[in-house]
Amino acid sequence: MGIEVAGVGIILVGAIAATLVFVYGGLVTVGWPAAYHRYRANLGRGILLGLELLVAADIIGTVAVTPSVENLLILGLIILIRTFLSFSLEVEIEGRWPWRRASTEGHESGGERRPERL
């Protein structure tokens, strides 16, 4: 249960921190459009980290009790759903498919890396 609380806490702290950085960036540094892009990426990172802990808590919870076929099927479904969410968030943050990362990194020349559009 402690890992679940930590996962939810990380999501909440990540959301609050991303919001504060967004407001500061919009008002002071980069302007609202760039701050919004960073906000989405930072918010996604916080959610991803929290989801990883929640998946770990589910695995530990299933192993800690007497594993039954029903418990294992429920765990598998939860992991499948959370993995899909994590994959979707990763694509949203990076702006490209994960398997495109290696092919685009070799073609980029100096400067800041720009995500490929989907």
TrEMBL record:
Transmembrane segments: 6-35, 47-66, 72-91
Coiled coil regions in record: none
Presence of the UniProt keyword Membrane in the record: yes
Keyword terms: Membrane, Transmembrane, Transmembrane helix
Pfam families in the record: DUF1622
Transmembrane helix as UniProt keyword: yes
Descriptive protein name: DUF1622 domain-containing protein
